[in-house]
Design brief:
heterodimer; A: mainly alpha; 11 helices; B: Rossmann fold; 10 helices
C-alpha cells in the first residue's frame, strides 16, 4: 500500500512525461528526413567560426554528417537533456509526507517515515529510469523506416548518463520537498539551481552535470564517463540521505 | 499488560520557535475507558496526540501507549497498528473516492473488519464512488470514523471529532461512537472543547491548560469531589485563607463569598461557620463549571 500510494502520487507526471518523450522521440526520426535534405547545401557553405553561434553551427553541421551524430545532437544533447532535467525535478517534487493535505492521515497509518520515504524515492527513480530509457528505444525501432540504423547499446549508454546525472536534480527536488510542504517551491528552486549550473557550465566551460548527461564522452570515445557518473550517484545518495534525515527529525 | 493504555509522565514539548506546547503533562488513560481530553484552543491537546502517534518528538518526559514508547520509531509503528485516529481537520486523501480510501486503508490492517465496513457504509450513508473532496464536513467526519473503527483498533484517538458539525450530525456521530465502544470494547481518547459531548459520553476526563493536566480522574469521582460553597455574612465577606489545599478559587462579592473546591467542602463549610457566616450552601458543579473554574484558577496562578 505504501508503494501504491507513491504510484498514485506520481503516476500522472510519469505518464504525461512518457507520452511527451515518446512523441518527441518520433519527432527526431521525422526531423532527420528534413535535415538530411538540407545538409548537402549547408555543408558547402562557409561558416564564420570566430563567433559562438558560428562555432555551434559548424559543430552541428559536422555532427549531422552521420545519423549517429544527428541523433546525439538532436536527442541526447538537446531534447533529452532539457526534458529529463525538467521531468526529474517534476517527479522529485511533492514529498509523500507533508503536514498538509492527507499528511496526518498518512502518518497515522502503521508504516514508518522511512518506509514512506523509501517507497516514494524508489518509485520516482524507477519511473525516471523508464523515462530515460524507454522513449529513446523508439529511435532504433523506427530508424529502419527511414533507411537508417541506430544501436540499442547507444540508447542504454546515453540513457544511463541521462538517468544517473539527472537523478541529482530529482534528489535535490526530493530534499527540497521535505523542507517545503507545497509542490511549487521545490520545483521552482530546483529548476533555478539547474539553470544556474547549466549557465556556469557553458560560461566557464567545465565538466559538470550537464556534460555527464549529454554523454559527449561516450559519443566520441565509446566509453562511459565513470568519474562523472560515480560523482553524480554519490551526490544523489547524499541528497536523499539528507531528505531522510530531515523527515526523521521533523515534527508534523 | 498495563492497566493504562496511555501513560505520559512529565511530558514536555518546546517547538523550535520557543513555544512551549507541553509543560510536564502527566496522564493515565485506563483501558476500556472513554477518556475526554478537555482544554481551550492552544492548550496542548493536539500536540499531546501527535506525540502519542509518533508525529512529534517530545523535548523530554515519557509517553507510552500499550506500554510501548511512543517516540521510538519501531514501537510507534506497532502502536499505530492497534490504533485508530481521526484528526481535527478530518485529513484524508481528497483525490480518492470513498471506496478507494477504504480499500487503501484496509490494506494496512490485517484485522480490518469487513463486517463493520459494510455496516458503517450503510449506516452513515456514505456514497462509495464519490471523491473525498466532494464530501460534506459531516460525511467526511463519518468516513474518518469508519476508517478508524474498521481497523479493529484497541484504541481510538479522536482529535476534536465533532468540530464544525451541525447538531444532528454531531448526535449521529456521538451515538455511533458510543455504540461502537459498547460493541467492540475499545478505549477512546477523545479531545474536545465541547463540554456537552464529553459530559454525555466520557467516563474519565482530564483538563489540560498550558500544557499541564490541571484536573484528571473518573468523571463520577470529579463530580463527587468538586463543589461550590456559597457563604453569606452579615457584613462584607471577610478575606479568608482556607486551611484546606483543595480550594481552587474564591470570589468575594459584597456579603457573599463563593469558594470553588476540588474536595474538602465540609471542612471549608466548618471554617466558614466558625467565622459566623449567616448561611453556607454546598452545591455540586457542572463539568462546564469545573472546567472554567479550573482553567481560570490556572491562569490566575500562572500570572
Amino acid at each position: 500500500m505504501v508503494w501504491y500510494k507513491s504510484w498514485l502520487d506520481t503516476r500522472w507526471r510519469f505518464l504525461i512525461g512518457l507520452a511527451a518523450l515518446l512523441m518527441l522521440a518520433c519527432g527526431v526520426i521525422v526531423n532527420y528526413s528534413v535535415s538530411a535534405s538540407l545538409l548537402p547545401g549547408l555543408a558547402n557553405q562557409p561558416v564564420d567560426t570566430s563567433t559562438t553561434a558560428g562555432r555551434m553551427l559548424a559543430d552541428l553541421i559536422r555532427l549531422e554528417q552521420t545519423y549517429r551524430g544527428f541523433v546525439w545532437g538532436q536527442w541526447w544533447r538537446e531534447g533529452m537533456l532539457q526534458d529529463a532535467t525538467l521531468l526529474a525535478v517534476l517527479l522529485g517534487s511533492g514529498s509523500v509526507i507533508s503536514g498538509s493535505k492527507g499528511g496526518l492521515f498518512t502518518l497515522s497509518l502503521p508504516a514508518s517515515r522511512n518506509e514512506w520515504l523509501t517507497a516514494r524515492a524508489a518509485t520516482g527513480l524507477g519511473e525516471f529510469f523508464i523515462l530515460a530509457m524507454v522513449p529513446s528505444l523508439v529511435i532504433p525501432i523506427l530508424s529502419p523506416l527511414i533507411g537508417q540504423h541506430y544501436s540499442v547499446i547507444d540508447v542504454f549508454a546515453h540513457g544511463l548518463c541521462i538517468f544517473v546525472a539527472s537523478a541529482v536534480f530529482y534528489s535535490l527536488a526530493f530534499l527540497l520537498s521535505t523542507v517545503f510542504h507545497d509542490i511549487w517551491r521545490p520545483l521552482l528552486i530546483a529548476i533555478a539551481i539547474a539553470c544556474v549550473i547549466g549557465y556556469m557550465e557553458v560560461t566557464f566551460q567545465f565538466n559538470g552535470l550537464f556534460k555527464v548527461m549529454a554523454g559527449r564522452h561516450y559519443f566520441e570515445s565509446g566509453s562511459l564517463p565513470w568519474i562523472g557518473l560515480t560523482s553524480s550517484a554519490a551526490l544523489s545518495v547524499a541528497l536523499l540521505y539528507g531528505a531522510a534525515a530531515n523527515v526523521a527529525r521533523k515534527d508534523f | 499488560m498495563t492497566d493504562s493504555v496511555i501513560e505520559t509522565s512529565d511530558l514536555r514539548k518546546t517547538y523550535s520557535d520557543g513555544g512551549k506546547a507541553l509543560r510536564g503533562l502527566t496522564l493515565q488513560v485506563p483501558a476500556g475507558s472513554i477518556f475526554g481530553f478537555l482544554g481551550k484552543n492552544g492548550a496542548g491537546k493536539t500536540t499531546t496526540i501527535k506525540v502519542l502517534l509518533g508525529m512529534t518528538n517530545p523535548t523530554s518526559g515519557d509517553a507510552r501507549v500499550f506500554g510501548l514508547p511512543a517516540f521510538d520509531r519501531d514501537a510507534s509503528v506497532a502502536i499505530r497498528r492497534r490504533m485508530g485516529f481521526v484528526s481535527e481537520d478530518k485529513d484524508l486523501y481528497d483525490s480518492m473516492t470513498v471506496q478507494e480510501i477504504t480499500r487503501f486503508t484496509a490494506g494496512f490492517y490485517p484485522k480490518w473488519r469487513r463486517d463493520l465496513e459494510a455496516r458503517y457504509i450503510d449506516a452513515f450513508e456514505l456514497p462509495g464512488r464519490r471523491k473525498v473532496k466532494a464530501l460534506s464536513r459531516g460525511m467526511r467526519t463519518k468516513l474518518a470514523l469508519l476508517l478508524a473503527f474498521c481497523r479493529g483498533a484497541d484504541l481510538l484517538v479522536l482529535d476534536e471529532p465533532m468540530s464544525g458539525l451541525d447538531p444532528a450530525v454531531n448526535e449521529d456521530v456521538l451515538q455511533a461512537l458510543v455504540r461502537h465502544v459498547a460493541d467492540e470494547g475499545a478505549t477512546v481518547f477523545f479531545s474536545s472543547h465541547q463540554l456537552a459531548d464529553i459530559d454525555q459520553i466520557a467516563d474519565h476526563v482530564a483538563v489540560i491548560d498550558r500544557g499541564r493536566a490541571i484536573v484528571s480522574g473518573s468523571l463520577d469521582d470529579i463530580r463527587d469531589r468538586y463543589r461550590r460553597i456559597q457563604m453569606v455574612f452579615e457584613n462584607d465577606a471577610p478575606s479568608i485563607s482556607f486551611r484546606t489545599p483543595d480550594v481552587i478559587r474564591t470570589r468575594r462579592d459584597g456579603r457573599m463569598l463563593t469558594v470553588f473546591a476540588s474536595g474538602g467542602a465540609n471542612a471549608i463549610a466548618e471554617e466558614a461557620r466558625a467565622l459566623n457566616a449567616v448561611s453556607v450552601d454546598i452545591t455540586p458543579l457542572t463539568l462546564k463549571e469545573i472546567f472554567l473554574e479550573s482553567v481560570n484558577a490556572s491562569v490566575h496562578a500562572e500570572n
